[in-house]
Amino acid sequence: MSGAGPVAVRPELADVEPYGAPQLDVPVRLNTNETAEPPPAAFLAELGAAVTDLALHRYPDREAVALRSALAAREGLDADRVWVANGSNEVLLQLLQAYGGPGRRALGLRPGYSMYPELCRTSGTALDLVALGPDGRPDLDAVAAVAAERDPSVVLLANPNNPTGALVGPDVVRSVHDAVRGLVVVDEAYVEFAPDGASVRPLLDELPRLVVSRTFSKAFRLAGLRVGYLLGPAAVMADLRRVRLPYHLDAIAQRAAELALAHEEAFLAHRAATVAERDRVAAALAALPGVVVHPSAANFLLVETPVVDLFDRLLARGVLVRDVAAAVDRPGAVRITIGTRAEDDALLGAVTAVLAADRT
Ligand SMILES: Cc1ncc(COP(=O)(O)O)c(C=O)c1O
User: Fold this and answer.
1) Based on the number of CB atoms within 10 Å of its own CB, is 309 exposed (0-12), middle (13-18) or buried (19 or more)?
2) Residue 47 is part of a domain; what is its CATH number?
């Protein structure tokens, strides 16, 4: 048999556009929730030296023992209850590959993290999204009703949620865990920005089907590294070994994340300032006419404005934010990452100017 034409992609991918936030070369980039400040200089110097000591002609440690042990020590868990992967996106994909897949369903909230539908599709998992309540919190009755009908094998919650910035909290996680038979995944990509005690990590001892994912990409200022991790029952980590690629986390990333943990205090020293800056930007935006700023426990703000093409008009002024109008069903809604003071001032100036232009 011979064919002259191109090979057809899987039918369910035929209409899919490659996903990803725009990476544009503009002066102010506030669209992907990284921390604006680079990692500490001392870490970078140490990393350079550490890389020269790595045996890069050999495959990396498949079990990432040193990094998992360091994370385990930080969390007061045994290392067999810790998993690491190439960003928390890979952690989430591996969870769906292990527990979702064809014939199985996941349950998420809307609005929620935009990658959940992508990861579900890639893993062949059907996804049901339940709208958040009018107060921005999960509607537990609706979650329970959908759970009863669909019997999800995976539930995806983010604490704090993206793009709303709201915390989920332990009571909601307990209720959701009670309402389903599947694995409850709480994605804590931004939890280091939230007040102390906001993590649902303590519930791991109480809820047997709970896992908590985290990342080095946000407060740890290492988005370029691609390291995420998961805390939970050892049996889950054992199942993830069934789906992972043999060397899924490279040696440089493993070593760099270990070093970052050793420098944790320096890495996270920016948190108080970032939170203060978030509150400054939130107050300044909320003072503008017609602008609603959602309370946030993360390093970004969900902002509703009366300007339907705000995203494009900010971009025309060199400020890139995230267009979330469709995600939150509100024209003029954007999600703004907290940047440096200078970047945030540029953002505030641009929003003010666009609003003023609309009023004249
Ligand atoms: C809620 C949430 N989870 C997970 C991630 C993925 O982070 P990474 O793959 O960089 O660890 C992000 C990134 O934006 C996020 O917003």
Assistant:
1) middle
2) 3.40.640.10
State whether 33 and 69 are in the same domain: no
The reply to whether ligand 1 has any atom less than 6 angstroms from the CB of 159 is: no
Residue 187 CA, closest ligand 1 atom number: 3
In this structure, are 60 and 117 located in the same domain? Answer: yes
CA of 221 to the centre of ligand 1 (A): 13
* Surface-to-core class of residue 147, CB atoms within 10 Å of its CB (0-12 exposed, 13-18 middle, 19+ buried): buried
Domain boundary, last residue among 224, 248, 266: 266
pLDDT, tens digit, 9 for 90 and up, residues 48-72: 999 999 999 999 999 999 999 999 9
Determine the structural domain holding residue 242 and report its residue range: 41-266
Q: Whose CA is nearest to atom 7 of ligand 1?
A: 88
Same domain? 311 vs 341:
yes
Strands, E, within 95-136: which ranges?
A: 105-110, 126-131
Domain shared by 177 and 246, yes or no: yes
Burial state string for 178-197 with b = 16 or more CB within 10 A and e = fewer than 16? ebbebbbbbbbbbbbbbeee
Tell how far the Cα of 239 is from the centroid of ligand 1, in angstroms: 22
How far, in Å, is the centroid of ligand 1 from the Cα of 90?
Answer: 10
Answer yes or no: is the C-beta of 187 below 6 A from any ligand 1 atom.
yes
User: In Å, what is the CA distance from 18 to each residue of 14, 21, 288?
Assistant: 11, 10, 36
Q: Is residue 235 part of a domain?
A: yes
Which of the four pLDDT bands, split at 50, 70 and 90, describes residue 20? confident
**Surface-to-core class of residue 223, CB atoms within 10 Å of its CB (0-12 exposed, 13-18 middle, 19+ buried):** middle
Distance 155 CA to ligand 1 centre (A): 16
Residues 79 and 125 in one domain: yes
The verdict on residue 5 lying in a domain is: no
Upstream peptide bond of 27 is cis (omega within 30 degrees of 0): no
- The finding on whether 296 has its CB within 6 A of some atom of ligand 1 is no
Residues 25, 45 within the same domain: no
End position of a domain, from candidates 266, 294, 329: 266
> 33 CB under 6 A from ligand 1?
yes
Which atom of ligand 1 has the smallest separation from the CA of 32?
14
Q: What is the pLDDT of residues 192-208, one digit of tens each?
A: 999 999 999 999 999 99
